[in-house]
Amino acid sequence: MRREQNGHCRASRACKANARAASALPERGGGKHNEATTPRTQIVYDRLKHMSEKLRVSFNSPQCGWMSFELRAGEQSLIDAVSYTPYDSLHDLIRALSKLLVDDTELTVKWAYNPDELDFNFRASGDEAELEVKWYKNHLRVAGTGERRFFFQGSRLDLCHPFWKALRDIQSDTEVDEFTRNWRREFPEAEMKRLTEEIKAFKLK
User: What is the mean pLDDT of residues 169-174?
Assistant: First the structure.
């Protein structure tokens, strides 16, 4: 998980390129998918297929305000590098995961990589939860223009636990990685503590 930090930060564009290169990231991760043009039978088949796949999540150490991540489930893979601004995305992600464990809800966590943006659309109802990642070319998010880059459906724990493990890895390395300096935001310790408690409580149900 850990990567050696580059010396002094120069331009944010160069830092973004470094974040991608450090993990051999492509310019755009995952396959494009527009649900509006996909037959309903195919959508139903895809969702049934995704329910049997295991979700894997990883984050790399931040560099110069950029951080790369990877989502995997079956044959799907989404790899990209995102910025610390303008959204407090890591904080929002941890809070969203906590709510997914206790409520029937729909939540969106926004990530930016200038000018493109990604939405992590979370939904939870009954015993099931899902994540749909959509790409937009800018912050305007014009209706009908988003492209699906990743989809996962499973139990609430199937969705939340892999994220929690990946976040815990970041948390354990915050001092070594000089997290606050490199992400330019503090790690959300209070929110992470609550998420950990929710994970433990959910496992006891």
Answer: 94
